[in-house]
Design goal:
- By secondary structure, the chain is an alpha/beta fold.
- It has a single domain, classed as Rossmann fold.
- It is built from eight helices and twelve strands.
- A six-stranded mixed beta sheet has the order 6-9-10-3-11-12, sandwiched between helices. It has a four-stranded antiparallel beta sheet with strand order 2-1-4-5. The chain has a two-stranded antiparallel ribbon with strand order 7-8.
- The chain is globular.
- The protein binds adenosine-5'-diphosphate (ADP) and magnesium ion (MG).
């Protein structure tokens, strides 16, 4: 049994406070959905929990089974059992999925001898073409293939808690169903899931136990799956003032995206 505990988390990007005190607890086998309009801070939450560079933590805590995650570099958070499925998976020319997963296994002290078979079996299960396993990671893949690939990596690594940032963005309905079902199966086997989404569409495939609504960096409502249904009928307007539903223009001085190390990209 594992628990990710987020308490009073406040964080800023380029000097602007985005997360204004987030409390969330996700335990093994639970599916929590965080839903919110564009610009609410959903991706910022996933980035701060995983330790993406460029975000400043202003207060609060993030622990996994009592261990302080905020004190660790991204790769150590991943080895501890956190995994992020990114909204926009990175393309990594020159590095194959097998290379990346071999590194990730090595970082965990896991034997890599059966890795190729494991990847092949998972690829078949998620509907990812085996020939992509040897090619540069995500390069020239469609949106759906990238998300199948991300889901495959998660299944092979077997984290304790996974954060899925808009798994449903940029993929067709078949890929969405296949990915959501794989995550659902993993949650039935004990994975704790924090699924971040703008639309309730994903939640018809991946059934949440708890739904939280995030507006302007705060959770303004929490409840059961019925909250997603209410959102579907009433929209975010029922949960926030109109001015809070307009995404701020991106701050002009966005930090330059670092190419990042393998560790950052794959959370190995
Ligand atoms: P969501 O994922 O809910 O759409 P984000 O977390 O991406 O929202 O963004 C929340 C706010 O933070 C937005 O106003 C966005 O412009 C700002 N923001 C996020 N990341 C950066 C960044 N790297 N540089 C500048 N502003 C950012
Ligand atoms: Mg986002």
């Amino acid at each position: 049994m594992s628990t990710l505990e987020i308490r009073g988390l406040r964080a800023s990007v380029v000097g602007k406070e985005i997360l204004q005190g987030i409390d969330l607890t996700v335990s093994s086998g639970e599916v929590h959905a965080v839903m919110g309009p564009n610009g609410a801070g959903k991706s910022t939450l996933s980035a701060v929990v995983m330790g993406k560079p460029g975000y400043q933590v202003l207060g609060g805590s993030v622990t996994l089974d009592g261990r302080d995650m905020l004190a660790l570099p991204t790769w150590e958070r991943a080895v501890a059992g956190l995994h992020l499925v990114m909204q926009y998976p990175s393309e990594v020319p020159g590095v194959s999925l097998i290379d990346a997963m071999s590194e990730a296994f090595a970082a965990r002290g896991r034997d890599t001898s059966g890795l190729a078979d494991l990847l092949g079996a998972e690829a078949d299960r998620i509907g990812f073409e085996r020939r992509f396993l040897e090619r540069s990671l995500n390069v020239d893949l469609s949106g759906g293939e990238k998300k199948r690939n991300e889901t495959l990596q998660m299944a092979v690594l077997g984290p304790k808690i996974a954060i899925l940032d808009e798994l449903d963005s940029g993929l067709d309905i078949d890929a969405l169903r296949d990915c959501a079902r794989r995550v659902e199966d993993m949650s039935n086997e004990g994975l704790g899931v924090l699924v971040i989404t703008h639309y309730s569409r994903l939640l018809t495939e991946l059934k949440p136990d708890h739904v939280h609504i995030l507006v302007k960096g705060r959770i303004v409502a929490s409840g059961g799956p019925e909250l997603a249904d209410q959102l579907d009928t009433d929209g975010y307007a029922a949960f926030a003032a109109p001015e809070d539903l307009v995404a701020d223009a991106p701050t002009p001085a966005r930090p330059v995206e670092r190419p990042g190390s393998l560790n950052d990209l794959f959370a190995i």
